[in-house]
Amino acid sequence: MTNILTNSAALKSLYHLHKNDGAASNATERLASGKRINKAGDDAAGAAIVNRMTSQISGMEVAIRNAGDAISMAQTAEGALAETSEILQRMRELGVQAANGTYSGADRVSLNAEIVQLKKELIRIGEATTFNNTKLLNGTFQDTEFELGFDESPQHTHTLTIDDVRPSQLGVWNMSSQLEKSATVTSTAAYGAAAEITTSAAHGFQVGDQVTWAGGGSQGMAGLVTGRIYTVSVITDTTFKITELDGTAVSYGALGATNATNDGTGGVFHLNSLTGAPLVAESGDDAPDSGQSSTETLTVYGHVGTETISFPEKSSSRAIAEAVTAKSGTTGVTAYAETNARITVSPNNTSDADGNTIISFTLKGMNTTPKIISSTIKFGTAESTQIYPTDLSDLRDKINGFSGDTGISAKLSYDRTYIDITSPDGYDIVIDDFDMAADTTAAQVVANVAYNGTSTNMYTHAGGQTTFKCANHTLQVGDTVQLAKMTLGAGDPSQGTLNPDTVYYVSAVSGSGATAAFDLQTVSAATSGANAGTKVLLNDTHDAKFDYTFVKREKTLDIQTMDRDGNLKGTKVKLNDQTLSNDETYQTASSARIAGQVVYDSPNVFTLETGASGAKMNLFRDAPPSATLLRISDIDVLTVTTSQRMLSAVDGALRRIDAERGDLGATMNRMEHTIDNLTNIVMNTKQAKGRKLDADMAAESIELSKSRILQQAATSMLAQANKSMQSVLELLQ
Residue 584 falls within a domain, yes or no? Predict the structure, then answer.
């Protein structure tokens, strides 16, 4: 039956025709675009995934270019630093060359001219090295970030800083500390036969330490001699007393109740750097005294990290330096020890007709067996009309002759009046058994007390002591003198009370120039210090008519600690001949130990702290709070000393440059790996995106053919359905 109201066959044919048209259109679009998803309706979830993948791929492709730019920038900086390193190596060669003593001043000027030009080139490199108008080496390239990912995650960034490598910022950070404790007096009090000394802080002295009185204080300490060596007896952390070297108690004048708390306030005692730490073995190869179990600490705050280093109390500078260097891996700070001192020999009455004197002592450095140094020295004395200049060149030669055994070298001053000795490995320098030859000529005059008709112009009396008036005398407290000549004035034939066979001790010196004066007392083996022997008291009746000529009987070798820059440290200490001519022993030292200096350096700034917090110990005499930079811009090769210092600065600069090149090399290597990794990720992500997005061309081709066949069939069927309706109309006709 045919339904004339609805041509269902035609409608169905038309429906399928439209459906096949859509399928053919989709297949045609996919084939034309190559994409499976051309609109969200094709695959909403897939479209979202594909969109995120597209962002990731594009971001990583830019990151790959960023990494390439970072490599280019790092290569530019590293190339400039490589040239900087070459310049520094050349400067080092010139420094080593100039450190040789064979070059004249003119030669050094020529060498320094090249140093000046090399510095200028270093400045130019530091200022001119740029990448895309960005300066790289002048210190402005700080915390620069390179984006290596597709989002803002900090894991996807690389931060690079290039330090300032201009000569004004290159060099070595260093500081030096003289190994010596000290204590400042706050008060003194009577303590039996001696006096108790109270210090402003924990003094750090130990029983048996040898100290020198450096003077100072509001009232001084009567009876103490500046530069003389005393032995410490510890009472508490902040109080101690001292004795003479032979153990005899020392009394500081008459300390009564009224002045006991004020006398000496502000004065300073130093652990005698020349006798050093007495309980430390005389050779650096020997162990410290076995009875010592306490330790001291040194905290190093370096650019790498912080380390607290412990070592036995009274360790030598060499031991401290080795302990610091052993921890350099965790602090970035290295250290070495160097021992320096200056030797002078006091003029005396032992010179021969040519002004020569034979001295001898034993010398020990790194050697375990002392070496005997016997030398002929010439003093700057005047005999008749001939003047003999001071000349210590033979002493220098004798010390250098044993350098292979002792490790100690000697350098003579330009005027030949003193010698600087050095133990470059930081061993303590021990001088012992100092001795001078016996008298061979007339005495050298050091003071003339002349009678001019009025006794008051010669001396005064006060408190049982005679004060001699002698203009421009050269005596110092602690000198030992003898009366060389007494000349009787007119009118009195009596013998004076001063004895030419007696050795006298200079107990006080006052005034200067025309008003200079001094006090004497006798030396005795039984007593010492302020109470040694008997105070000299003349009488006006007989002694006032004599002219007195005094000569210096003290035979001394003066030693003072010195730092590596030639600055004298601490108190000058005198070593006296072991015996006087009358065989009476004077209470001063005949031996000395020279403690070393610890030198610290680092390519970056650092600080030190001695002792634990709240319980600091005065380990060093002069430990600065932080390091200072020895700059390349400040160095020269005009002297041997500055040439040697330049080597240290250049070595520090090279370490800095090496560190910067290392950082840049690490950056470049990372960027290479970053590029490789990002390239791999981009490739895999593109493949994943393709699997999600790309059309299946074979399937879509089949789908298009199928759709076209069905289109044709639907069109034919639609025509047939419409023809069937036409047959019904024909039947009605």
Answer: no
